[in-house]
């Protein structure tokens, strides 16, 4: 599973952990997130702004 980094605040979305308090269960892949997904920490960056981290 992969991780994705917010360039604004450094938040990492980890597919293994999901983001349960935002409604995304553990195991939710990046592709399954809606295009309207915004960073849960800073709310400044959208999904397209995130970069995938090397596995």
Automatic annotation (TrEMBL):
Swiss-Prot/TrEMBL keywords: Electron transport, Iron, Metal-binding, Transport
Keyword Cell membrane: no
Gene3D superfamilies found in the cross-reference section: 2.20.28.10
Cofactor or coenzyme needed: Fe(3+)
Domain of life: Bacteria
UniProt-recorded Gene Ontology molecular function terms: electron transfer activity; iron ion binding
Pfam families: Rubredoxin
Xref: InterPro entries: Rubredoxin-like_dom (IPR024934), Rubredoxin_dom (IPR024935), Rubredoxin_ET (IPR050526)
Keyword Nuclease attributed: no
Name of the protein in question: Rubredoxin
SUPFAM superfamilies in the cross-refs: Rubredoxin-like
Higher taxonomy: Bacteria, Pseudomonadati, Pseudomonadota, Gammaproteobacteria, Pseudomonadales
Protein species of origin: Aquipseudomonas guryensis
Rubredoxin-like domain boundaries: 1-53
Biological processes per GO annotation: alkane catabolic process
């Amino acid at each position: 599973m992969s991780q994705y980094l917010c360039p604004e605040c450094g938040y990492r979305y980890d597919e293994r952990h999901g983001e349960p308090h935002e409604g995304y269960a553990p195991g939710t892949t990046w592709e399954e997130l809606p295009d309207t997904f915004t960073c849960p920490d800073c709310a400044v960056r959208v999904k397209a702004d995130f970069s995938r981290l090397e596995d």
